[in-house]
Amino acid sequence: MTELHAQTLTELAAGLEHAEFTSVELTAALLDRIARRNDELNAFITVTADEALAAAARADAARKSGKAGVLNGLPIIHKDIFCTRGIKTTCGSKMLDNFISPYDATVVEKLASAGAVVLGKANMDEFAMGSSNETSYFGPVRNPWNPDCSPGGSSGGSSASVAARFAPAATGTDTGGSIRQPAALTGTVGIKPTYGRVSRYGMIAFASSLDQAGVITRSSEDAALLLGVMAGFDERDSTSIDQPVPDYLASIGDSIKGLRVGIVREHFDAGLEEETGKRVKEAIRVLEALGASTVEVSLPNLNLSVPTYYVVAPAECSSNLSRFDGVRFGYRAEHAEDLLDLYCRSRGEGFGDEVKRRIMTGTYVLSAGYYDAYYLKAQRVRQLIANDFRKAFADVDVIAGPTAPSPAFKLGDKVNDPIQMYLNDIYTIGANLAGLPAMSVPCGFVDDLPVGLHLVGPHFAEEVLLRCAHQYQGETDWHKACPEAYR
Ligand code: GLN
User: Fold this and answer.
1) pTM above threshold 0.85
2) 7: closest CA among 214, 171, 169, 189?
3) How far is the CA of 149 from the centre of ligand 1 (A)?
4) Domain covering 4-259, topology
């Protein structure tokens, strides 16, 4: 039998089903691996060993009495942005270092009801602001493929954990690329569904019109399985969409013959590292060999997506983070002289530099006199970008291109240059601005570091993305590659 840590979620589900091992055995094996190896990567903020073993025992009992849910006994990790009842939820910030949520996020609740076992809470960029996991109050996460490199961000603890086989799957959130970019940089699979597909209730808000929850796994089949459980209408989230959730696994084996794949003219320009571009083009040739046809499309406003995002996201963040004032929520500074001083000190000490940079930018673009020039203008450009996608999707079923402009970069390389860091999301941000589903799939290596193929679809086309990725994975083995030190 393949060692437990090396198995995918689907393989583990079959093993549990056939009583090859119990969930308690599986959970204990992974907890042991985490205890021995997490220090190398710093992927966790909290490991919930006792709760996990108790949940595993309940799952084993449920299976014995014939009441196993679809994820019964399967271990996962939650990004520490999802509220978990009774367990610390920090969002990677000193501000919430002592926050214990009184309730579960909908995503947490749904996965738990299906029987999933939570091993812990994954490290992340502070309030999900970052592309390298270096803005975390709890320190950077390292990339299992090369410990000197970043695992991407902001879901870097999630991506590193899945790549290092600490768990077969982890949740993530994606506001401008934070599931897909870390998936690309760690050779894992990441999917961000359509805006509104998965409930945001209990997910600590960064930029509410862009935030969406999703998963990081090692195969598209596993992603389909988890997404099917997480998705669906939630009356506690006013932006949640009331539409039935298809069975993503039902069609995943269908052929992609005749699928029209859009290749974006602007994707393969100067900003893309050459070898990364080659791997992506090779992946597109595999899709062609599977019967897909390629069509050139244009997203003329793509170059405006990063500047647009860096007006809209900070604006929404400055509003969302105003609640962390040391009184209503969050860290409270000591020795304040008066109320104003308490606010200033609590926020000054509780937030890190990147979060402060965003709050200041956001407050500025929303202030009287600048609102029209920045925020309103950005919302208009956002519409142009969404229209570009709409036009492209009149001719194609999916768009394929690079997830990130290069493979994983060194920790420390970009952290002092915010613009360089922001440009890492040039290919992913458009999907958030337009609310579209998008996915990253491993498609090869450059200098022993993984590269991701990015697939974007029209609203609610998750099924097409997952099928396309699954067919690609039937022809290639990139998603099976494991960093040598973590086999
Ligand atoms: N890297 C982008 C940012 O810093 C996106 C982050 C995200 O998707 N949460 O905002």
Assistant:
1) yes
2) 169
3) 18
4) Amidase signature (AS) enzymes (3.90.1300)
